[in-house]
DNA sequence: GCCAACGTTGGC
DNA sequence: GCCAACGTTGGC
């Protein structure tokens, strides 16, 4: 079991939309590093759903329900998608600002490479974030 | 809306 | 293969 963090612009695809739809195909990834991470995701892996933009932060927990397959929205190139479903919303949004100010989370990819849209999360980081959720 | 950081493209 | 120019992302 691995943990991840996937980013989305809420105007493009939001947590609310994922909950409303019940599941989704995570398409549109056009960055090789992000794509490779996407391909490493296994069925049952859990990830943080992160909203980028004005109110950037982690909003929910979701799960991979289907491993990678070709991205039907890609006109050219070798791109992939996975299918996901929501698990639950976090009790509060864990903002990027808070993550940056939390010493235990300084090694997160989010802090070091904020642009990567599909990134791994260490098990320790995952469990720590859940402890500060309350 | 600006701009820093990063990735990609293409000329040489 | 280097690197300048350009495009995109995303925080502020």
Could you characterize what this model shows?
The protein has 134 residues and is α+β, with helices and mostly antiparallel strands. The protein has one domain (3-132): ph1033 like fold (Roll). Helices cover 26% and strands 37% of the residues. It is built from five helices and six strands. It has helices at 15-21, 32-40, 96-101, 109-112, 123-131; strands at residues 3-8, 24-26, 46-51, 57-70, 80-95, 118-121. Strands 2-5-4-3-1-6 form a six-stranded mixed sheet. Strand 3 (46-51) and strand 4 (57-70) form a beta hairpin. The chain is globular and about 40 Å long. It binds a DNA duplex (12 and 12 nucleotides) through loops.
Relevant terms:
134 residues, alpha+beta, ph1033 like fold, 6-stranded mixed sheet, DNA-binding
Nutshell version of this structure?
This protein is of the alpha+beta class and 134 residues long.
Strand order of the largest sheet: 2-5-4-3-1-6
Question: Which spans of ≥5 residues are poorly predicted at pLDDT below 50?
Answer: none
- Under CATH, the topology can be stated as ph1033 like fold
Strand tally is 6
Identify the CATH architecture.
Roll
Report the principal-axis shape: globular
Helical content class: 25-40%
Largest sheet: 6 strands, mixed
Count of helical stretches: 5
Instruction: Determine Rg (CA atoms, Å).
Output: 14 Å
Overall CATH class: Alpha Beta
Mean pLDDT, all residues: 94
Order of helices and strands: EHEHEEEHHEH
Output the structural class: alpha+beta
How many distinct folded domains? 1
